[in-house]
Structure formats: C-alpha cells, structure tokens
C-alpha cells in the first residue's frame, strides 16, 4: 500500500526521537534521513530534540516527574505521533543514558500500539546492534510494535560527510527504509485493517536492515 494508490488512506505522523545531545550528532543526522523516508511515503514528520524539553532526571516518582511542564510537552509530542523512529548512539554496549531517562517518562498511554523503527550509530566497527536490541526490549515492555527493519551505522565518524550526508548510497537507502516502513505499518494500523496488518507484519523479513 502506498499513499498514492487511489485509496482513501489516513495521514500518519512519524516523529523521530534523538538519543544524542552531542553537537553535530551523527545520530541526529541519521534520524533526519530516516524521517525523509517516512516523508517520502507521505507521512507528516517531526524531529523530537531532547534539548527542547527540560525533563530532568526520572527519580522513580512517576506522578511527580510527569507533572513537570517539559515532561508533559514531551509526552504529548510522543502521544501525537502514530509512529516513532528512535535514534541512538551505542555507549558501552547499550543505548544512551539520556534516551533511557526520556523513555522512562513514557507509559502505555503514549506508547501502546505505536509503530517504532530503530536507527543506531557507533564509533566502532560492530555497529549498534546491542543498543537496538535493548530498545526492542523497551518497545515490547511498552506494548509497542517494533518493526523488523532497523539500520546500524558502524564507524559513523567516517560514514558521514561534513554536511551530515551518508557517503554510502546503500546505507542511506537502508536508513530511509526504516522511516518508510514505520510510516507504512502505522498507516495500516490506523486503517484498522487488522487482518492485512498482521499478514503484512508476519511476512516481513526478520531484519533486512540490520546488516552493515
């Protein structure tokens, strides 16, 4: 199904959540490319920059933490999206601490039934597979659908040019495909065509975007 197939299909919103606060972040650059893939499918897109939210630390008192103005705005931005693309650097074999802190403010209210795609970058040659596997566990815990497609970008420091463009066309296509698939599955889910959604989901390749 595509947005131009002549059917009356609903618009979807895909938001990208950046798990890096570093200036000139490769994660942010990769996330913007994935959002381009969602936009090419026809989705409205938004870039969620954690710099824009005064979240503070999650101290374990959920109701107190969620009463902060920045936390309310962050939760509203996530809830408004039909799908998410989560981008993270890999630090010490896991996703970033700032991303984990942000995700801890979310609940089923924002995440249940939402489509999630994953993009990970790393400085080393092994990619960010451990980080993305950890995020898959978080997605399951929040009752979200984590799409099979994901994209790992190893040795990010040499994968991008100075303008934040991926040098490899094949890697760029893989990152864009994550955004495309999030938008596609979000649209199917929003249509309420459960049978078609499940059939498409079950026949999707296990992880075609995981190789580097």
Kindly describe this structure.
This protein has 212 residues and is an alpha/beta fold. It is 43% helix and 18% strand. The chain is built from nine helices and six strands. The chain has helices at residues 26-41, 62-66, 69-79, 97-103, 108-111, 129-141, 156-159, 169-191, 194-202; strands at 13-18, 44-49, 83-91, 94-95, 115-121, 145-153. Strands 1, 2, 3, 4, 5 and 6 form a six-stranded mixed beta sheet that branches. Strand 5 (115-121), helix 6 (129-141) and strand 6 form a beta-alpha-beta unit. Helix 1 (26-41) packs across helix 8. The protein is globular and about 45 Å long. The protein starts with 12 loop residues before the first strand and ends in a 10-residue tail after the last helix. 45% of the residues are buried. The model is unreliable at 1-6 and 208-212 (pLDDT under 50).
